[in-house]
Amino acid sequence: MLKLMKLEWEKNNVRKYMRNAVILAVILCLFMFALAYLGIANDPETGVPDAAPGNGTISAPVELFTSMSFLVFTSVMLSSFIVSAYKNRTMNLMFSYPIKRQKILASQMLAVWVFNFTALVLTKLLIYGCVLAGSCFMVSSFPLDFDMTGAGFYIQLIIKSAVVITMSFIALFIGMAMKSSKATIVASFLLILLTEANIGDFTMAGNVVFPVILTVISLIFAFLSVYRVETNDLM
Questions:
Q1: N or C: fewer beta carbons within 10 Å in the chain?
Q2: Does the residue 235 lie in any domain?
Q3: Residue 107 domain-assigned?
């Protein structure tokens, strides 16, 4: 499986995605630093941060913007690695190899998952590290509600990152069902609206049970995507 994943990275020019992930991480880091220390979120009249309910601490916008960005980024990669391969008929060649279709598709999904999970974890560590470093000589507009010296911080960071990246399998399933790369990306935006948007004071972002349910659904969709590939015709 690891060899198949490496082949997928090489075939799809993973260096291009590494470059884009680094650029995205730097942009997010600069934005969050400006949000915390340069007052870009402050209300011009009151001078205090104008944040949505539940986003009054620095970790909330960090989790929000990194999750939004990498959910879309992962969906774009899944679209390129898998859905586009079906549409361009390059999957025909891969399925002609003496390897089960399920194993090939699973390796593609894992290649994207591992890449983006690692990228998201590193991006969050970069952002939290920069925000913490900034607190040594500047006053943050948002309370710093994280402790990078505790194991709980890293456990929570890893779990949340895994949940976000796994949700992209829902977008993949929709894209494969509709035979459309655009549908995969649009579905990722809909997932963002479902999980992160605020309706008045109501939001799913702080709900503990909802991400668990969504992760289970994502894993079911991932299983269905792999399970059906042996019997489904190519796009």
A1: N
A2: no
A3: yes
**198-199 and 202-203 strand pairing:** antiparallel
Report the run of H or E that residue 202 belongs to, with start and end. strand 202-203
In a domain, 73, yes or no: yes
Q: Which residues of 45-83 are buried (b: 16+ CB within 10 A; e: fewer)?
A: eeeebebbeebebbbbbbbbbbbbbbbbbbbbbbbbbbb
- Measure the CA–CA gap between 66 and 64, rounded to whole angstroms: 6
Closest CA to 186 of 197, 172, 199, 198: 172
**If residue 129 lies in a helix (H) or strand (E), which one and from where to where?**
helix 101-134
Biggest distance spanned by C-alpha atoms of the chain = 67
Q: Which one, of 155, 165, 207, lies nearest residue 69 by Cα?
A: 165
- Its domain, for residue 167, covers 2-230
The span from the CA of 177 to the CA of 97, in Å, is 24
Write out the chain's pLDDT in tens, 235 residues. Answer: 778 888 889 888 899 999 999 999 999 999 999 988 886 665 555 555 555 545 567 888 898 899 999 999 999 999 988 888 777 766 666 666 667 878 888 889 999 999 999 999 999 999 999 999 999 888 888 888 888 988 999 999 999 999 999 999 999 888 888 878 888 889 888 888 877 655 444 455 555 677 778 888 889 988 888 877 766 654 4
Note the pTM of the prediction, 2 decimals: 0.87
Give the burial class of 143: count Cβ atoms within 10 A of its Cβ; 0-12 exposed, 13-18 middle, 19 or more buried. exposed
